[in-house]
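Support case: user asked for a sample of complex input and structure output to validate their parser. Sending the pair below.
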Amino acid sequence: MTDDWRKRSLKELYRLTGQIFSQIPELARLWGGAYQALNFADVPFTPLRKPLYECRLALITTGGVHRRDQEPFDMSDPHGDATYRRIPASTTLHELTITHDYYDHSDADRDLNILFPLELVRHLVNRGIIGSLADSYGFMGHIEPPHLNTLIQQTAPEVATFLKQDRVDAVLLTPG
Amino acid sequence: MGLIARIIENAGISTICIVSLKPIAEQIRPPRTLHLAWPFGHPLGEPGNRIQQLAVLHAALQALATAQPGQILEPGWRWRREQYTLPEGWG
């Protein structure tokens, strides 16, 4: 019972801070400065080996985007949801929706290209500016321990493996 | 998001992250970052503003080929107070 209450109040707090941060970016930056969870000295780096017009591109967003016919992200767990949804390259924007309570996505609901530019990339593929579009992936941001481990150990490496199998050259990542 | 980018980059695929919070990128150190100090939920800009969206996409894709490891690129575009031009040949 107490756990349930704590879960609910934590979730409510994240929802509220997310909404406030969406309105007042300065506040979000202060909060971001205090975010000390992870710190890396090294930077992994793979140089892009092809011109853009030969590149196979995939999109990844942590904004909670998924197909309407897929299971929504789990918003009942205040520590987040480390799972992902595969979004086939042929998906149209109206087949997609957002499940994420911790930021204001009303503008993205109107025009998903501001968060997940599937249509824009398809336009650039048709123009011959980008080589091709691969299947993309939706995650839900705001992942805390213990689910952070699942993301690092399991779900993100799984997606990396799928991208390799799909011969993807480059990935554009966008947040919520 | 930066963590996912690091894992994908480690697997041998180039990544570019668009972020609105620079301090987190400075800690997580994604391979390549485009920083725009815009409200959450608007990494490519405003709904319906296709020229703005394409300008952001252009900057991000260009960074894939040009950014140095760990570099955070900052075009400095202000929220709702910039004029954008369509990237050449992207119409």
